[in-house]
# Entry
Amino acid sequence: MEGSYKTQEDDRILLRPPSAVGTQTNFNDPQRAAELELGIDNPLAVETETSLQNGDAHEQNGGASNGKTRTMSNGNGHAAEPDSLPPKPNEVDDDDDNPECGWFRWRPNCLQCCNNIVGYTLFLSIFVIAQGMTVNGLVYVVITTLERRFGFTSVRSGFISSSYDFTVMVIIIFVTYFGEKAHKPIWLGIGAGIFGIGSIIFTLPHFLTGDYVYQNSDFELCDSNRTGDDLCTTTEVQDENLVNYYAVFILAQVFHGVGASPLYTLGVTYIDENVSSAASGLYIGIFKAMAILGPAIGYIMGGIFLGLYTDIQHADDLDITPEDPTWVGAWWLGFIVVAAISFSLVIPFVGFGKTLPGGKKMFAQREVETQKGTEFEAKTGWQAVLQFPKALWMLVKNLPFMFNNLSTACETFILVAVGVFGPKYMESQFNMTAGEAAIIAGIIVTPSSFIGALFGGWVVKHYNLKYRGMMRFTLVVLIISFGLQFLFLISCANVDFAGVTVNYGRNPADITPEEGSNITAICNDDCKCTNNFQPLCGEDAVMYYSPCHAGCTVKSTNEDSQSVYSECDCIPPTNMTAGILGTGDGGRCEQGCSKQLTFIILTFLLITVAAMIAVPQLTATLRCVSQSQRTFALGVQSVIYRCLGSVPAPIIFGSLIDRTCLIWEDECDGSRNCWMYDNVELSRYTLIMLQSAKGLSIIFIILALVTYRPATENPTESAAPSTISKDVMPPEIPRVEDIEDEKV
# Structure
């Protein structure tokens, strides 16, 4: 028959016997492990196939055909095309270990420089900065401004903050469980878009309401002809309308929670899947540093924007300053910035492949550190749904994982408590405005958290720490930070406040602070004052609740555009020749406390040390669970530290702080706001709460360390652990010792 035909020689597979191999086969060799993981059973197959395709003829003595490398001749001395062709350059194949970056079939070469762990970490870091700026920065900074602008009570504003954590708690389990086998970068891109929508929704109340109308100046002075029944009617109608926007803020936080749910779970797991164990700690450290950097930027940016008037178009027509308690800053501007950043991340994320180039090779070299008895094989599709209870139980019974989670919950409790109430603590202790406290907090947190998280990641990478090493490092850091937290014993004396900490100077018998706070005295009894807090510093260096409570009847403005009040019946004059009535300046009195710098330096050191455990704890979580459950484990961890840390922290810590309140402002609707705290008691309660949480965290880390039993532990530790598991090693490959025996 005419045409192509084959001979016996064409059927031969040219393989050299094992004895001809120049180097011995080493099953602990990372390259060999990668070849086995990729399905290359015979290390000589690649060389054989290459030789045949080049038309070379080699002779084999006693060789046998190998089904995986069998190559047919086309009769022209060249190898015929194999049955399974490799994918074309512009086709996407998730099973390939060299996926290209791009969208659909467009994958230009200029984008491939970003198709690596550095490029991915860059975009993930930008996302986590935007998330931290918003949820843990801007929202905390603008809470008190929202209360003033929209008439929210403290309970309502607190729930605005907590609604984010509630949303994440509900959705995170499903995102992590079903996202384990999904295309993680695409989920991140969708999440970034949803997060941006949430930020836009958060700004809508500003654009849907009219201009802000601050307190009428007619009510700030003493006026005996004013009727008390009219005091609550000036803003009552406006507040009832504005309070309806409460649901809009809740909806925005729900979108924030849904959008950010893949960030700390799928985003982190994608890093760990595509780099070596040693490098994973470094890149996760960068991610954690950016996560802590985000809130710091949010504090600084929020503080700056709060210095701008909320209705920017009317900024030139104001007669109040940011120091005025009725001031409302541009709380909404920061969320516009975050929305723009979030939307810009959608396209880059969806351009990444399901894995990064070389990711599967790295994964094949990974040493298994799973807790003994918790190995698990994840399913897909409907089987994954049926397998959910078993998957959850495998994590719950993993004691090192659970104890590490409890420690993380304690650390989260501290982080959230200080994040929410830290600026308020500094406002009270060092007599700062809300904007000043926010900016200083951001300046402290930014470099310290960045340095601490990066150093923790560097330690994990440099010393190639395994699970036990990371837990020991975490334990040492926790003990050091426990000692540093005693800095909260630093406190400043309370400001002299008429009717609260000192008697009214003009009528000393009017009030005794030990008997309780009472800002009403004989000198202001007929003034018909409102409950709006508008502090005034009298010439006697005593602070008064408002010009009205100081008995002032005249207001003027000095050359610095600062309000000056005179004819104040409750303020004793320092110069009797100038008149029998005192004067005062609008704003708080200077406290004169010299401990502020010491507190800032020690706080910087504390945050630096505390941030060092971020990477070891997170990496340890990924190491002690089954490799197929790492993303799901992060989801379960997120639920635990939110249930025990993020959600209860503001409630518990807030209730303790309220116990130190010296003066309350009673609103017309029955709600109350505290305007002054006892600094000594505030310091004491803060220290007790933080040290209790830190002490529990230390105990849980010790338990996580002593209960750890790795599945591949070698009691003698005389040999280096193999980089591949037994189920990967093919039994048909002969051992080197057997080959040497045959040669003999």
